[in-house]
Amino acid sequence: MDRGSFEDLYRAFAPLVLRRCLRLLGHEQDAHDATQEVFVQLLVYEDRVTFDTREATLHWLYRVSTHLCLKRLGRSRRVEVRDPAELPEVPLACTIEGRLVSREALTRILAAVDEKARAVFVHAFLDGMTQEEIALVMGVSRRTVGTKLGLLREVALRFAREPAHA
Questions:
Q1: pLDDT value for 87
Q2: Cα–Cα distance between 64 and 35 in angstroms, integer?
């Protein structure tokens, strides 16, 4: 890949990759670092990957960025605990669904499942993909995707039933 085509790819796709990384990692600097690493991987693997279309390029970049971010999140496996006074006022419903929307709950859920289930979560709930699309992107069966979604639901419900932490 020549310098010009790499720069064209970076200009076209870096904002999309950055947005994906920011959604997954939640911190701007971490997202910038991950975006840079994704494009470094593009340079490293340029001899092994070929892109026939713009969609194929974006698909590869999304897959790599998702994997990279989930791997980083999996390594940390810690929930950031902050002083409640620092948190913004957000009224949460007193329902199971209301408790599930909190970032802490989501972090705990994703830390409790395997990497494949985390990837299914991202594709289903951030990208809005169907089970068939997720299966195609991940190279697994639709049944595997359904199983991982079931696992995510079970874990989410288990955490939602736990008493709130003091």
A1: 39
A2: 10
